[in-house]
Prior knowledge:
Elements: H1 2-22, H2 38-56, H3 67-90, H4 93-106, H5 111-132, H6 142-145
Amino acid sequence: MKSDRIFGLVGLLIALAYMASATQVQTSFLSDPVGPKTFPLMIGAVAAISCLVMLFRPDPDPDWPDAPTWGALALAVVVLVGYAYALKPLGFLLPTAIAAGILSYQIPPNRKAAAIAGVCLSIGLFVLFRFALGLSLVGLPRFLQG
């Protein structure tokens, strides 16, 4: 109950700050009825109502994960942050294969299956993004392309 109330209070403060910042948006005389000011206010109101529900009707205290699960979550966050930083200098294929492999290894700890999943995901996503969706991804590092 305590964690829901804390999260509800923090979320309510964020929703109110979001709504306050939405009131500062300048609108022109040609904007539609649900324009740049009204839509964020509606989103903030729904978020504030949701947070109030969590404050006044919290769920029972959850069973928090054990230490190994927290470690796996922390590793996943570190891998994804590293992946974001590695995309530009190393291209799409290599960082995606490494990140997908590490994250796949956490599901069933099987090195061979995780490596195959990482390589297949990397190539499959590259083909999908580059050719099916038309995104201009750089596949390999620029120093390897000449």
